[in-house]
Amino acid sequence: NAGVTQTPKFRILKIGQSMTLQCTQDMNHNYMYWYRQDPGMGLKLIYYSVGAGITDKGEVPNGYNVSRSTTEDFPLRLELAAPSQTSVYFCASSYPGGYTEAFFGQGTRLTVV
Amino acid sequence: DQQVKQNSPSLSVQEGRISILNCDYTNSMFDYFLWYKKYPAEGPTFLISISSIKDKNEDGRFTVFLNKSAKHLSLHIVPSQPGDSAVYFCAATTLTGTASKLTFGTGTRLQVTL
């Protein structure tokens, strides 16, 4: 039972480069999320999706893009990476409804130099 | 503007004793609260939750208390075990939202000593 799987686990990017963080879940959850966690801080919501073809901005969406073509996958795209995007990124998924917990992946540690 | 606050960055407790982790929130629209536990190099895992219509929820060694008038919740772990050593995040959300968009606190690192 894989749950939420993120790849890669670690990545170093140069300023201005682009990359896609992959996230897939096998729990048939409608809702998926991307969070980032900076040192000493809580997790902040970047983007979320309530189903295939539907995405919306969270608290800190600038510098990122997402797409949701299938229920299982929710990739996060970084265009023109900046040092401020150095962080640990977590993908999560949940069942519909506000009263449900989210299940998280193991995270991607990204460093922009 | 930090809507969910965990004012204690760290807490050290002896094995067998009670651990009490605190969380305060400012947004009165929050009506569902969760605690997540996080080990190093892993994603957060759900621990326990409470709805605003309750003031207490218990699951084994873990109990969450909610004081709506004070906008305060706490997580009690009794008895504490070495495996409980982790970072604990408090999170909050609103039922009116269409998704579990969680607002997290900054976390409290719990160390349970022998």
Protein architecture, described:
Chain A contains no helices and eleven strands. In chain A, strand 9 (87-94) and strand 10 form a beta hairpin. Chain A has strands spanning 4-7, 10-13, 19-25, 31-37, 43-51, 54-57, 64-66, 76-78, 87-94, 103-104, 108-112. The mean pLDDT of chain A is 93. Chain A is mainly β and 113 residues long. In chain A, strands 2, 4, 5, 6, 9, 10 and 11 form a seven-stranded mixed beta sheet that branches. In chain A, strands 1-3-8-7 form a four-stranded antiparallel beta sheet, with no helix packed on it. Chain A is globular, with a radius of gyration of 13 Å. In chain A, 0% of the residues lie in helices and 50% in strands. Chain B is mostly beta strands and 114 residues long. Helix content of chain B is 0%, strand content 53%. Chain B has strands at residues 4-5, 10-14, 19-25, 32-38, 45-51, 56-59, 62-67, 72-77, 86-93, 103-104, 108-113. In chain B, the strands form two sheets. In chain B, strands 2, 4, 5, 9, 10 and 11 form a six-stranded mixed beta sheet that branches. The model of chain B has no long low-confidence stretch (mean pLDDT 94). Chains A and B meet through strand 4, strand 5, strand 9 and strand 10 of A and strand 4, strand 5, strand 9 and strand 10 of B.
